[in-house]
Amino acid sequence: MIDRQVAEQARRLVADIVVTSESGLPVAVVEVKNRPGLTAEIAASIRRNLIIHHLASPLAPYFLIISQDTGWLWAEHPKSAPEALPTVGFPTAPIISGYAPWLQPSERLSGGSLEFVVANWLSDLALGRAPELGDVIAPLSGTGFLEALGGAGVTINERV
Predict the structure, then answer these.
(1) Cα 29–31–32 angle (5° rounding)?
(2) How many CB atoms lie within 10 A of CB 63?
(3) How far apart are the C-alpha atoms of 126 and 47, rounded to whole Å?
């Protein structure tokens, strides 16, 4: 049972992208940070700060930080320590080239544009119509994340 105070606090949080199950429960919270060189350590520091300042939902089992170059996933997010390194990392360049083919490799998307691209990719994954991106999917396999997305809804700038 989720503590009432934790649940109330979580309702006030706004995430870049929220993935919710068919029953309306949060499956994943996604933060988009389009900084070059987003390492696992930097991503862990960002997540830690979000948790410490009560800006990361304790309700979603998966947490992602995604840049234009790399994505980082924490499985069992609520149970892992705030300073924990991500469960897996995955390249996001194939996602960007698939959903923004006009973008030159040297160009950077704005934060809002990257949110839109990532939300579309997650939505396509949830609906089973995402393009074949083996380099992206392989690291995520075995985490339970891909299965949890089945039939889920994806929203941008959503209150968790």
Answers:
(1) 145
(2) 27
(3) 24
Q: Model pTM greater than 0.85?
A: yes
Instruction: Give the pLDDT band of residue 89 (cuts 50, 70, 90).
Output: very high
159 inside domain: no
Confidence at residue 12, expressed as pLDDT on a 0 to 100 scale: 57
Q: What is the mean pLDDT of residues 125-134?
A: 91
Specify whether the CB–CB gap between 119 and 156 falls below 8 A: yes
Given the structure tokens 């520091």, which residue do they identify? Answer: 45
| Structural domain range at position 79 | 4-151
Sequence-ordered list of residues with C-beta below 8 angstroms from that of 129, at least 6 positions apart, any chain: none
- Give one word for 157, left, alpha or beta, with left for phi > 0 and alpha for psi -120 to 50: left
Dist CA 124 CA 131 (whole Å): 8
- pLDDT for 76 equals 80
Phi, psi torsion values for 72, nearest 5 degrees: -130, 130
| φ/ψ of residue 122, rounded to 5 | -65, -40
- Distance (Å, whole) CA 65 – CA 129: 22
Number of domains composing the chain: 1
